[in-house]
Design brief:
Pathway: Amino-acid biosynthesis; L-methionine biosynthesis via salvage pathway; S-methyl-5-thio-alpha-D-ribose 1-phosphate from S-methyl-5'-thioadenosine (phosphorylase route): step 1/1. The protein is α/β, with parallel strands linked by helices and about 280 residues long. About 30% of the residues lie in helices and about 20% in strands. Bound molecules: ligand LNRAV4D5 and adenine. The ligand CSC[C@H]1O[C@H](OP(=O)(O)O)[C@H](O)[C@@H]1O binds near residues 52, 53, 61, 182 and 220.
């Protein structure tokens, strides 16, 4: 059974693409998520929405609780997560208001808890950090109506300040395509939680290699201009996800739990049961 989670980023705070909405608070062993989850459905498929930064945009990319947000999705039975994100462009041909479905990410964050597994040792594979199948569906749906790029490397910076011109130019020279502040550790955690995860990125600006400066009002204004497009892409993709077959992402922990079963403390078993129970007896 498919259940689709949607994480709304800057400029996307409401699940107005849902048919009916019920609000649910979720408790997690990692603390509180950014907000309540909104439960609903799209064309008969169960859906869950969470505002990444919380209502009123209360949490910055460095302070928001990624572990709680992703754990909450897992606890609600979500199998596929679509993240909506605002990004700056690092190349001329990825223009403001274009849509990008990134296929790679380069992690430059340094202040964030980026694994569920502090109490046991788990090494998952992350060579392809975004689910290729989910990304393909998002691209196919989006490109029918909107100017869409099917790949790109997302440079995830710590923030919350925007880049300097020197940094922006270095990122371009290194071949990165778009820049944002939230793709990691979200993608890592979704993989650890064995959920398919992909990003619909809206280009809001050309970052500072091209412009004199980037301002938050410019980002929010352009993200809001594309809100209807993002909601439309999600609505049209959900039905197709219901037909998506099994996927490697859903088995990411197979063979990845390195700590011997008999060395896993009872407290860790309790805390991590939701994530590791298919692989651990008792
Ligand atoms: C609001 S300006 C910078 C902010 O926007 C993006 O957030 P999100 O990915 O949640 O749309 C970017 O990553 C920064 O966090
Ligand atoms: N230029 C930029 N840098 C970092 N994050 C962003 N989000 C949107 N535009 C951005």
């Amino acid at each position: 059974m498919v259940k689709v989670g949607i994480i709304g980023g800057s400029g996307i705070y409401n699940p107005s693409m849902f048919d009916k909405v019920e609000e649910k608070k979720v408790r997690t062993p990692f603390g509180p998520p950014s907000d309540s989850y909104m439960l609903g459905e799209i064309d008969g498929v169960e859906t869950v929405f969470l505002s990444r930064h919380g209502r009123g945009h209360r949490y910055s990319p460095s302070t928001l609780n990624y572990r709680a947000n992703i754990y909450g999705m897992k606890k609600l039975g979500v199998t596929h997560v679509i993240s909506a994100s605002a990004v700056g462009s690092l190349r001329e041909d990825y223009r403001p208001l274009d849509i990008v479905i990134p296929d790679q990410v380069y992690d430059r964050t340094c202040k964030r808890a980026s694994t569920f597994f502090d109490d046991i040792v788990v090494h998952i594979g992350l060579a392809d950090p975004f689910c290729p199948e989910l990304s393909r569906i998002l691209y196919e749906v989006s490109s029918k109506k909107y100017r869409t790029h099917d790949k790109g490397t997302y440079l995830c910076m710590e923030g919350p300040q925007f880049s300097t011109k020197a940094e922006s130019n270095v990122y371009r020279k290194l071949g990165f395509d778009v820049i944002g502040m939230t793709a990691q550790p979200e993608a890592k955690l979704a993989r650890e939680a064995e959920m398919c995860f992909a990003i619909i990125a809206t280009v809001t600006d050309y970052d500072v290699w091209h412009e004199e400066s980037v301002t938050i009002s410019q980002v929010i204004e352009n993200a809001a201009k594309n809100e209807q497009a993002v909601q439309d892409i999600i609505r049209s993709s959900v039905k197709r996800l219901a037909d998506m077959g099994d996927c490697q992402c859903r088995h990411a922990l197979e063979g990845a739990i390195t700590t011997s079963e008999n060395a896993i403390p009872a407290s860790a078993r309790r805390k991590l049961r939701l994530l590791i129970s298919p692989y651990i007896k008792g």
